[in-house]
Amino acid sequence: MTAAVDIVTFGCRLNYVDSERLLREARAGTPESRGRERVIVNTCAVTSEATRQARQTIRRLNRERPAAEIIVAGCAARIEPESFSVMDGVARVLVEPGEARAESAAEGQTRAFLAVQNGCDHRCTFCIIPFGRGPSRSIAPAEVIAEARRLVDSGKREIVLTGVDLTSYAAEGAALGGLVRAVLRALPQLERLRLSSIDCIEADAELLDCMSAEPRLMPHLHLSLQAGDDLILKRMKRRHSRADAIGFCAALRAARPDIVFGADFIVGFPTETEEMFARTLALVEQCGLTHLHVFPFSPRPGTPAALMPQVNGVIVKERAARLRAAGEAALARHLDAQIGKTLRVLTEKGGMARAEDFTPLRTPGAEAGRMLDVRVTGHDGKALSGTSAEPA
């Protein structure tokens, strides 16, 4: 009898794709390994808190399931293998990043995440992920299309292209825009194609053209902005300026007026003053951002930013709260603007759905994986509500 293999995943969508592969490999292992109870902990190293949570989970698993073989994988495991290997209950630490190949992870019956790129060649001063993921490498378009076709044939109505540095995609002469166009042309039956987080300064001209000309490429982009002050951006070793971010959003909104932007921000980066933070805060309105991911700065050992003059932790938390409040207000304004509209949404598990621009909408009792036309009647500050027609 084959013993159970469980997995606990931390971090980004790419980690969830990796977890699908790790589970397949574990379940197809040697007869000896298949007879053991195993738990894989797929770690994240983007913040010290993420790594702390992984360690906490390993300790809890060792207490609750002492007979289980604990296997540690992911970015934190590759960066700090020795510190995980000495933890009680840990049988193995996987340190190889794995070969570049088209892999995917399904999210219920609705969508799938398809990894088309891995690793990063940049060295932002706050980021330790390149040490865990290795250099940038991309999947050939034919492999991406083949996996996308398999996902569509299995019933997925939406595919999200993902990667560590997605806009650095480059394979067989194609940049990300070329890949997007190739996928859409090869799979006319694919109803929705989405992109995960992108770097605005790397977006190629064909990608921008696709965003304006391809209705099946969803009008939502999540931008890796990190800050709105030019000196902080320089100290982060980012490659865009404040003006670049504002101009990018304005140009895309002019080309596709229904587009919605989200963004990642790091608050309290070393040397950040109140005036510098104010410029980041102002970027929410100047770029017309709707969905914010706000991270208090977390020094990662081995990165240049960890050696810079740090901002007081109390100030960092207060600034993070202010930026999150600005994001909540921006989201509320966006939700207000949807009232009275009829939106095409794709239902998810748990009575939720997503509009084309990624706005959440509550659909209690609706079966996952259906397209609904919903007339929006209100919202609760976080998600829309409305009345729907028959599912498609």
Shape: globular
Average of per-residue pLDDT values? 92
- Regions with little confidence, pLDDT below 50 for 5+ residues: none
The neighbouring-strand order within the major sheet is 18-17-16-19-20
- Multimeric state of these chains? single chain
Structure description:
By secondary structure, the chain is α/β, with parallel strands linked by helices. The strands form 6 sheets. A 5-stranded antiparallel beta sheet has the order 18-17-16-19-20. A 4-stranded parallel beta sheet has the order 1-2-3-4, sandwiched between helices. The protein has a 4-stranded mixed beta sheet with strand order 5-6-9-12, sandwiched between helices. A hairpin with a 2-residue loop joins strand 10 (170-171) and strand 11. It has helices at residues 13-27, 31-34, 48-64, 75-79, 81-85, 129-133, 141-153, 176-186, 205-213, 230-236, 242-255, 274-286, 313-338; strands spanning 5-9, 38-43, 69-74, 90-93, 103-107, 111-115, 117-118, 137-138, 158-162, 170-171, 174-175, 192-195, 220-226, 260-267, 289-296, 342-347, 352-355, 360-362, 371-379, 384-388. The chain starts with a strand and ends with a strand.
Topology overview:
Elements: E1 5-9, H1 13-27, H2 31-34, E2 38-43, H3 48-64, E3 69-74, H4 75-79, H5 81-85, E4 90-93, E5 103-107, E6 111-115, E7 117-118, H6 129-133, E8 137-138, H7 141-153, E9 158-162, E10 170-171, E11 174-175, H8 176-186, E12 192-195, H9 205-213, E13 220-226, H10 230-236, H11 242-255, E14 260-267, H12 274-286, E15 289-296, H13 313-338, E16 342-347, E17 352-355, E18 360-362, E19 371-379, E20 384-388
Parallel strand pairs: 1-2, 2-3, 3-4, 6-9, 9-12, 13-14, 14-15
Antiparallel strand pairs: 5-6, 7-8, 10-11, 16-17, 16-19, 17-18, 19-20
Helix pairs in contact: 7-8, 8-9, 12-13
